Amino acid sequence: MNRASMDRPHRWAAWxxxxxxxxxPLLRLPGIVQPVFAQGMELEVVALGDSIARGYGCDPGxxxxxxxxxxxxxxxxxxxxxxxxxxxxxxxxxxxxxxxSVESGTIKDAVSETxxxxxxxxxNDLLQYLGNTMREVLQIPLDSSTPGRDFLLQLRxxxxxxxSSLLQSLVHSVQNGDFTAGLEKTVAAFxxxxxxxxxxxxxxxxxxxxxLTTIPNPAGGTxxxxxxxxxxxxxxxxxxxxFGNPQVFVVDTAAAxxxxxxxxxxxxxxxxxxxxxxxxxxxxxxxxxHRLMAELHLHAVQDAIDRLVAxxxxxxxxxxxxxxxxxxxxxxxxxxxxxxxxxxxxxxxxLYLGKKARKRK
Length: 361
Known about the structure:
Layout (H helix, E strand, L loop, with lengths): L2 H21 L17 E9 L1 H4 L9 H12 L5 E7 L7 H9 L4 H6 L2 E5 L2 H12 L12 H11 L5 H13 L1 H28 L4 E5 L11 H16 L7 E4 L1 H7 L27 H27 L5 H7 L4 H31 L1
Parallel strand pairs: 1-2, 1-3, 3-4, 4-5
C-alpha cells in the first residue's frame, strides 16, 4: 500500500471532524435552544378621555399621550420595537360619555388590544355640574355653550365694576348647603361610573397597563386657586385611590402642577388683575404642561413597561415558535444534528482505520 492511499483515511477523518466543529454551534439538542428575538414587535399606546387627553390648544404631537409614545420609542431604540399611538380624546367628554363610547364598541377594539392605556377624565363632570347650578348666579344665558367666555365678556364690557357683587353671589352659593350636597352627589356618580369603566376595560384587556391622571388645578397660584382646589378635591381623592383597583397606575398630575416652579406656564388660564382684558379661564395645559404630564406618565409605569418589553424580547423555547421565526426551519432543527453526528462518526471511523493501516505497514 502506498503512502498516499494510507494518508487518505486521515484526510477524510480531518474533513469529517472539521465539518463537525464548524457546525457544532448550530446544534439544537434537547434543552439547548438558540435565542430567537421578535422582529418588528409593536407596543401600542392609546389615550382616552377629555380635551386634556386630546391635547386641546396644542398641536396633536404635543399631547401628553403622543409624547409618552415618543419617549418609549426612544427608550427602546435599537431593539426592533415600534411604538404606535392612537388618541381618542374628545373635547367636553364626561366619564359617563366615555363609558358609553367604550361599551358601545366605538373604541372597544382599540382598548382591547393596546398595551398602555392612559385616561384623563373628570373635569367635565365638574364643569357640567357647575354649568347647571351657576349660570343664574353668574348671569349667563341658559342656552350658552361657552359660559366661561360669556362671563369674561361681561367683565370686560363692564370694566370689572360688577365683579365684586358677582363674586359675593358666587361665594354665597358655594357656601350654601344645597350646592355642597349637589357636588358630593356629582363626585359619587363619578366614582360609580369610573368603577364600572375600569372593570369593563380590565375585563376586556386584563394585561393592559392602565394609567389614570388626577385633574390639575388650572388656577393654581391665583386668587381663584383655593376655590378650584375645593371643587376638585373629591374628584382627585377618588382618582388618587385608583377607585380601589390595584391594577391602576395613578399619575398625580395635580400635585406635580402645584409643586412646579418653572418659568413656563402649565395652563392657559390667566387671572392677572393688572391684565383684566387678557383674562382667560381656559383650563387646559399648555405644551409645557403636556411635556410634564408625559414625564410623569413614563415615571409612573416605566418599570412595568420594562418588564413587559423584556418578556417579549426574551428567547423563545417553544419549538413551534422557533419554526415560525425561521420560516419553516423546524425540519432543520432535527435533521442538522443527525447529519452532523453521522459525519462525526464517519470521520472517527476513518481515523481508526487509518491507524490500523499504519500498524500493518
